[in-house]
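Provenance and format

Records in this collection were gathered into a single text stream. Each protein contributes a sequence line and a token line. The two records reproduced below are adjacent in the stream.
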Amino acid sequence: MDVLGLGADPVAADELVCSAKGCRAEARWGLLWNNPRLHTPERRKVWLACDDHREHLEQFLGARSFWKQTVPVGELEHV
């Protein structure tokens, strides 16, 4: 259930680590994205980012026109 209206897939509260390859830092940001070839327009997938990798991951998703929004992890729905 999407109580915040973000349309994002829920994330496991005990696994809030950065999605950057090899990084095990605590995630502070949720990068909401979707691949329009695979997902409906309202669907949002979530990558997690630490402060050090936020910009890099946003640029990676943005270069593919996948990035939609970045929010603090506290605003994400947790399972």
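Adjacent record:
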Amino acid sequence: MAEHEHVRVAVIGSGFGGLGAAVRLRREGITDFVVLERADSVGGTWRDNSYPGCACDVPSHLYSFSFAPHPDWPRTFSGQRHIRAYLEHVTDLFGLRPHLRLGSEVKLMTWDDENLRWTIETTRGTLTADVVVSATGPLSDPKIPDVPGLDSFPGKVFHSARWDHDYDLRGKRVAVIGTGASAIQIVPAIQPQVGRLTLFQRTPPWVLPRVDRAISGAERWLHRRLPVTAQVRRGLLWGIRELQVQAFTKRPDELGLVEQLAKRNMARAIKDPELRARLTPDYRIGCKRILLSSAYYPALARPNVDVVGGLSEIRGSTAVAADGTEAEVDVIIFSTGFHVTDMPIAERVVGAEGITLAESWKNGMRALRGASAAGFPNWMSIIGPNTGLGNSSMILMIESQLSYMADYLRQLNVLGGRTALDARPAAVDAWNDRVQERMKRTVWSTGGCTSWYLDASGRNTTIWPGTTTEFRRATRRVDLAEYEVLRKPAPVSGAGPAGRTSGAAA
């Protein structure tokens, strides 16, 4: 990184959000930008999560950029290896490699109110940027619970997102902690090779069959020769999920039929009534993320697998469950999720008032249209607060936010000079209040569960309570009335810091 480098835009992260932002910047004619990535390659969560069985639970043709269709997906639900290869392909297709700064972890971002720019300190040096686009994503920093005695465990310990491929699981006594989206893929993948597998389950998930199959050569040929067929396929996948949203957001009682399908899926593989009772959730389906697997329940029925309560403590090499069950284990694999509502990047962003984003969000994450936080000018998030989905592809939400980012930069160009936009607190509050009001009747609020969608105060600051179409409309254009316009005054004797004007007046 060049000394005292300055860029128009600094993008943080190189997953779907960061690479998508980089492509959109180039398509807008902006080439003065860098993509800061702490790892040594692109890919985000699809680079970090390489555990056995890792795959997407969104159909392949919907889990890809609309501007970079991929006719050669090998399966209807693609695995981690193919998704990561797709992101490498996008990087090359759009000429993004010259913009990458790999091995550049952001340590601190500080707003310079005098010069209306961000100073960014990284592990490879310092640079400044007019605009920061934070695309670190909510699934980037693993969370390991504070378990009594874990420090004294003599065996191997790792998180599913930091899989140790050098450790041989064959014949080992394995403890898998958690029953989320990663665990239900890991368990059937490793069960045949381990000596004994103990699954520590705090709360059972709802699991539907995963109707996955190889995409035939004829289908792929057709998608290559007639791209409109892939577009139709994508459109159908999207439309079905848009129609499902009403049940999640307005009529959760309609999800009872889906629960019956999930119970039948379990009953086909789990014949033991006691185990079936242990695996049956006591909350409305959809309250937690609905999981897809046709292999999870059959794996749990195997004789070398035990399902016990949540992990309560470690005593030497003994893992103790909340129900008192003890298991001697050689390795502990945490599949316990990520820092979603307390993202570590927020500790490293210092805004106009000299406080961190984490301090600003101490009562919950809040951002105007999921992008702009009050007091943090020219800073935008991709996959920000209340932009997550419970039933469709996050790529749809990312592309909507990229449109908002593009118009944000256009507005700065129209305003001219050294200018910044700072979300008005009243606008952030109004947007957040509307979102939270809509949240009250959703399954995520009424379903009777505690999920990773909720923050420490029980507030859902993660999920978008509507359709992707609604979000696309809400983020199509930047409304300057929702922002304060900051301008750097012309140099005069005794000039003070940058001035602020109303967006409407500007």
